[in-house]
Every structure is written in C-alpha cells, then in structure tokens.
Inverse folding.
C-alpha cells in the first residue's frame, strides 16, 4: 500500500508543476510586475522611483527566469520564478503585499474555516443522503414528484439569496443569533449555527437530486431484485444493500472535497464575518493582493490532489474488488 | 444613429447562426428529430422553453446596439456627432423606464419618495414630508384619493389587453393545427386543452397566459409608475432587471460557445488516438481541473483587470470596455469549465473507437480526421447538447456570485450580481428597502428554473441511458 501511495504522489508531481507554471504565467507573464506596481500605486501620477521601491520591497525587482548578474546556481535561484513560484513547493508562501506572513495567516485562519466547513459537510451529507433515500423509498409517488420539484426549485435559487434571506429573517426579524462575527471556544456556536444551516439548505437541492439518481441507478440492478425475491423488506433492501453499493459513486464526489474544507467558503465566510481562509481570500481579491491569491491557488491545488489520492484509497476500503495494482 | 457591434453582440449572433444550423441539421436527422419531438411533448420542457424564448427576445433586443445622433446646433452640412453613450433596441423601446429617474429610493408603484425630506412651504416655513416623485404618478392631482382607483384601472386595462393578445395567440395556434390535421377548430381546441397534441401546446399557451397576465398590467402601469420601485440613485428597478437579462444570457451561452471547440476537439482526439495524445490531453485537463475553480477565475480576472486598465486606450467607449470585460469573463469561465465535458467525451470516444462501424471505416482507409468528424462527432452530439443546456443555469448562478465577490462583470454593467450587491445593504435600513432584491430574485429564479426544467427535458430526450430506463421496467420514474 505504501508503494502505491508513493507512486500516486509521484504521479501528482507533474500536475503540481503544471499548476505552478500556470500560476507563474498568469501572475508574472500576462502582466509584468511593473503593471502590478502601477495598479497598486494608482495608474496616474506614479513615479518610476515609487515603482522601483514597490518592486524592491516585495522582491519583484529580480529577473523572471534567468539572472545574468548572479554567480553560479544563483543565476537560477535569484529570480522571481524561483523565489516566488518554486518556493511554494516547500510551502514557503512568503509575505503578502501588505507584509503579513502568509503561512502564519493560513495556520491561524484554518480553524475558523474548518469550524464552518466541517459541520456543513458532515451534516449536509447526512441530510441530503437521508432525504434522497426517503425520496427513493417513495419513488413514483406524489411525495417523490414534489420532492424533486422542490429540489429543482431550490437549485434555481442563488446561494446569495439563501444567505441574505436567512440573515434577514433569523438575525434581523427574529433576533435569534448575531448577524455576523466570530468568537473562540464554545461561544462560537452562536455564530456558527446560522451559516452552517444556511449552507446546508443552499446545497440540499442539487445534492439530493444527485444522490437520488445514484440510488435509482442502483435499485434497477440484479442484486436488488434478488434481495427482494428472498423476501427482504423495502427498507432493509434500501438501507443495507442499495446504500452500501451506492457508496462507491458517492465517495467519488465526496472524498475529493474533504481536504478542500480547509480553504473554507468564500461567500459564506465573507457574509458572516468569519475570520477564515475564505474571507482572507476575498479580502486579498478586493485588495488585489496577488501574493495571497497565488498562494491560495497553489494550496488549493495541493489539497485537491490530496483529495484525489484519498478517493483512490477510500475505494479500496469500501470495494473489495478494487486492489492496489 | 450609427450601429455599434460589440464583441459579445457579434458572438451572440454567431451563436444564433450555429443554433439555427443545428436546428436545420436536426430536421434532416431522424434520430435528433425524434429526440426533439420528445422534448416538444414534454409539458415542463415546453413551458420552460417558452419562458426562455421570451428571455432570449429581451436579450437579443438588448444586443442591437447603436450610438444615438446628438442634436447638433449647426446646419445639415455638418458632420453628424454621435453620443459616446451606447444604447440598444431595448433601451429605445423602454425609453420611458430609462429616462424617468427619480432622486432616490421609491417603493413600487409609489407616488412619493421613500424617505422624508425637508420641504419648504410657500410661506417660508419648513416641514418634513415625503416629497412627490418626479415621474411616478405625477398625473394624479390628489394621490391619496385617486391612487388606488388609478392603479386598479390601469391594472384592469393591462390584464384585459393581455387576455385579448392571448386569445389571438391561442386562436392562431388552434387554426394552424386544425388546418394541418384537417379537423374542426373545436376538436383541435379540445385536443390542445387535454394535451393530446404532439407538441405540448397546452403548456405553451398556459405559460403565455401567465406571462401576458403579468406583462400586460406591468406595461400599462409602467407608463405612469415605477412598477418595481427605484433604487438608491433613482433608477427604475424594472429597467435594471430587464437589462440584466442580457448579461445573464451572454454568460450562460457564450461561455459554452467559446469552450466547446476545445472540449470537443481535445476530448475526441484523446479518446480516438489514445497513447501519447491521450496522455498529454489528460495531463492538461487534470492540471487545470486541480486548481479550485473560483480561485483560478479570481486570479485570471484580477490579471485581466490589470491588463484592461493598462491598455485603456484600446477601448473607445465605456461600453466597449465593459463589453471586453464581459467577454473576457466568458473566456475565463469557459477555460475553467471545459474539463468536465472533455473528460466525458474522451470516455465516450474511447468506447466508440472499438465499435464495428469505426473499425470498418478504418479498414476502408477513411482518414483519421474524417472518421472523427463524420463518425464520432455525430454520435457524441447528444453529450455536447446535454452539457450545454445543463451548464447554462450553473453559469447564470455563478455570474451573480462572482460579481458579488468583485471578480465578475464590470461594476457598471447591468447584471443580477451587481444588482444584488448594490441592494444587499439596503436590508439593514429601517424600514426595509426590499424591492431591488425581490426583483433580482424573481427574475433570476424564473430564468434559472426555466433553464433547469428545459435542461431536464433535453436530457431525458437525448440521453439514451435515461430513455432506456424511462421506457423500461421501472417506468414513471425519471432520473
């Protein structure tokens, strides 16, 4: 198994290198550091000195790929590409454009992000899978029909409206929980409950429909007919046979997002004022802080690839037919 | 006036041409024809299609741009001077909505401003009151007494006109059907009513009935009032919502249009050639796919912003700059979303490659490119079509979120995202300014719901797996 994991990690390396090259091209080749400096300092009335200083402060004054002035290996290492892109591989994210240490920001902000994302993920999975099973149990009845209609209607509402409407009703009209904010420790529950519930409600429509399709596909298979033929009740068939076998397609979609939970949700966190990675990313986007956005892109890709790896491993755990090759 | 063709306009009309070409192709292809007939028989699908068609008309009208000629003081011999403002055919039709701005917020159908202001009386004393609107209900002498009656009168007139237009429409449909089938008008009408027609005309007519009963009163009321109120700077909210439709449609359709060639060509090539080609293409889409979508979009949009700002001299008018940004957003969204379709097509092409008819074509010495274009592509068309219609609603929703985050369309472009963003903080006011949000919500909900329902109808008709399941043992249950 360890050999398998190592081989998979080696497979992932070229992808990470590709991501790195794409981000490098996007951030330094499409626009030169001069353009960015001008953008940050204001397009008009900016002196060449100010641009030079801005670049020197942030280490953007080096050549892109090849440093003629340096000696030996420094020709390769004393460049923007090496300093800003290659260093990401050892998780050296450097400093944000406003001087904060990005790595420290990430470790401190991961907690609040997870505090929202993890309950949302687990409870959401539970709710949607149960709802989908319920619909399948009552398939081809009016309950199923209206359940699907409800799902399609809920899918058609923008997530922004769930948040705006939820904040307005629960926090402003009913005054149940604070509109936004965050606290450490058990006090956090007050702040977390609304964003978690809203995120779950916002995702119910599309996920339930998706799981329902998976279950319906399973229910037409031969082993289900066999189970029914030997006299098992419908609930036993559903929960013991169908649910287990449907785990494989469900895992494909679910496990891959688990590592990404660290990144938090952009929209939810910014609406509710949660000091997580998502709101940090939004702030960076609004402030055009390219260093933070670049780090987040790379971190997100690493986590996604970890998710793919976990998916493959989880297959072997739930499906005895899948073996490590 | 002088016509202006923005980039997105040109692409929209190119898309229209592609769609008509595909429609013509489907007419002569028995498989596609029977699938479309299945869509035509679906009541939800046809109702959704009717709504989408109305949205499309609004969007197309809004895509015929021109620059109005300025009234020049000089004689006829002078060269015409054109305004820097770019207008569209929709603006011309809705001149009233566009030009009748108020000072600030006013509630739907109101005659007075929403907030109190200090007003000076004739005798010099001051008091605080809700001032009259500049345009909303100015024809009334005594608003409190006449307001309700005037609203009711206009509403009734609008509803009656809507009903009259609907009857004409229903009559035309029934007459044409009756002539085609050479049966009596009464029989045809009963068939339509019961849903016994090949195309679900009852759904189409019912949708039109609902639409006209809403649109009629709105048009009559919009003549003298702000039907959906006005926003912070006094713009008519109905006008904002109508203008946002085009942006939503552009994002939803052009994005797929720009990504389709990549996804189709690369997907088929990967599946058909296999080996090295497959490895390279797989590597390409896995890499792009592994960057979280929002972040890749954010990074690309940020870079595009810098690029547009540093090349401001390329764009003659603000409309052109906003349009360039909209188009760039389509490209960026397309770039991040082609991977899913590409992977699907690769998988299918991999299966088709092994089938007898492809092997036969190879044995006959048909060239590789010809096999892909003539034998593989037509048999993958249903996947492409399903992907296009399924993506539409997701893209419309994504636009709103991206614009909220600040990485969507230009802040001066009308869009549901910018509308929501501007209206979001109004809920904190006391009393609440709810109409902008509700307008954006209703328009978006109807558009996306229609797109979702239509996508389902198309998928049910075109996906052979689902078609098999629906007609199979477990019938009545649709995926």
């Amino acid at each position: 198994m360890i050999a398998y994991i190592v081989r998979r990690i080696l497979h992932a390396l070229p992808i990470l290198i590709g991501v790195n090259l794409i981000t490098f091209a996007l951030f330094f080749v499409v626009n030169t550091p001069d353009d960015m400096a001008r953008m940050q300092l204001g397009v008009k009335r900016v002196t060449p000195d100010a641009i030079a200083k801005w670049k020197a402060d942030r280490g953007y004054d080096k050549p892109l790929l090849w440093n003629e002035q340096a000696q030996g290996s420094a020709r390769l290492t004393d460049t923007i590409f090496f300093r800003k892109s290659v260093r990401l591989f050892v998780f050296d994210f450097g400093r944000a454009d406003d001087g904060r240490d990005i790595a420290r920001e990430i470790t401190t902000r991961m907690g609040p992000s997870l505090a929202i994302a993890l309950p949302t993920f687990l409870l959401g999975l539970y709710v949607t899978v149960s709802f989908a099973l319920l619909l399948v149990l009552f398939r081809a009845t009016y309950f199923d029909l209206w359940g699907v209609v409800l799902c399609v209607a809920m899918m058609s509402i923008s997530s922004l409206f769930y948040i705006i409407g939820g904040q307005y009703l629960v926090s402003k009209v009913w005054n149940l929980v604070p509109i936004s904010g965050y606290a450490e420790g058990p006090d956090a529950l007050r702040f977390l409950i609304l964003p978690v519930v809203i995120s779950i409600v916002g995702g119910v429509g599309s996920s339930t429909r998706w799981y329902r399709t998976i279950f319906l596909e399973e229910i037409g298979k031969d082993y289900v007919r066999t189970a029914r033929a030997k006299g098992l009740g419908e609930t036993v068939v559903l929960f013991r046979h169908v649910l287990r076998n449907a785990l494989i397609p469900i895992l494909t979609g679910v496990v891959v997002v688990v590592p990404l939970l660290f990144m938090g949700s952009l929209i939810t966190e910014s609406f509710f004022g949660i000091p997580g990675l998502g709101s940090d990313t939004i702030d960076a986007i609004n402030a055009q802080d390219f260093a933070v956005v670049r780090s987040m892109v790379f971190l997100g890709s690493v986590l996604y690839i970890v998710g793919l790896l976990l998916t493959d491993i989880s297959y072997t755990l739930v499906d005895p037919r899948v073996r490590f090759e | 006036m002088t016509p202006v063709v923005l980039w997105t306009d040109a692409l929209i009309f190119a898309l229209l041409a592609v769609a008509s070409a595909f429609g013509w192709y489907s007419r002569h292809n028995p498989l596609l024809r029977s699938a479309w007939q299945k869509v035509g028989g679906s009541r939800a699908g046809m109702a959704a299609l009717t709504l989408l068609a109305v949205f499309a008309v609004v969007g197309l009208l809004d895509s015929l741009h021109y620059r109005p000629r300025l009234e020049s003081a000089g004689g006829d011999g002078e060269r015409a001077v054109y305004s820097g403002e770019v207008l569209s055919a929709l603006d011309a039709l809705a001149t009233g909505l566009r030009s009748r701005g108020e000072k600030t917020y006013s509630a739907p159908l109101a005659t007075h401003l929403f907030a109190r202001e200090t007003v000076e009386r004739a005798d010099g004393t001051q008091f605080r009151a809700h001032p009259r609107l500049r345009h909303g209900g100015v024809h009334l002498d005594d608003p409190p007494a006449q307001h309700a009656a005037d609203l009711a009168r206009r509403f009734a007139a609008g509803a009656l006109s809507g009903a009259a237009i609907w009857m004409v429409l229903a009559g035309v449909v029934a007459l044409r059907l009756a002539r085609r089938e050479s049966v009596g008008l009464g029989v045809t009408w009963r068939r339509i009513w019961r849903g016994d027609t090949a195309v679900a005309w009852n759904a189409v007519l019912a949708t039109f009935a609902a639409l006209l009963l809403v649109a009629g009163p709105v048009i009559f009321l919009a003549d003298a009032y702000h039907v959906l109120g006005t926003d912070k700077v006094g713009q008519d909210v109905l006008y904002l919502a109508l203008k946002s439709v085009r942006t939503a449609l552009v994002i939803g359709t052009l994005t797929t249009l720009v990504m389709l060639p990549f996804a189709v060509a690369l997907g088929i090539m990967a599946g058909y050639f296999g080996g090295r080609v497959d490895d390279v293409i797989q590597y390409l889409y896995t890499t792009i796919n592994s960057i979280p979508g929002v972040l890749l979009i954010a990074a690309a949009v940020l870079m595009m912003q810098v690029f547009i700002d540093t090349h401001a001299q390329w764009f003659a008018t603000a409309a052109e700059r906003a349009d360039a940004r909209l188009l760039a957003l389509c490209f960026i969204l397309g770039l991040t979303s082609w991977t899913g379709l590409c992977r699907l097509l690769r998988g299918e092409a991999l299966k088709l490659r092994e089938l007898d008819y492809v092997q036969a074509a190879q044995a006959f010495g048909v060239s590789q490119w010809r096999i892909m274009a003539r034998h593989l592509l037509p048999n993958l068309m249903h996947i492409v079509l399903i992907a296009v219609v399924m993506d539409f609603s997701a893209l419309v929703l994504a636009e709103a979120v991206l614009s909220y985050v600040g990485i969507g369309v230009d802040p001066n472009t009308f869009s549901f995202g910018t509308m929501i963003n501007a209206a979001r903080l109004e809920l904190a006011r006391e009393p609440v300014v709810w109409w902008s949000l509700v307008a954006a919500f209703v328009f978006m909900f109807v558009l996306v719901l229609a797109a979702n329902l239509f996508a389902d109808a198309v998928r049910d008709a075109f996906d052979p797996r689902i078609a098999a399941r629906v007609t199979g043992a477990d019938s009545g249950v649709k995926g």
Notes: Chain B touches chain A through 51 residues (CB under 8 Å). Residues 305 and 311 of chain B are 10 Å apart (CA to CA). The radius of gyration of chain B is 27 Å.
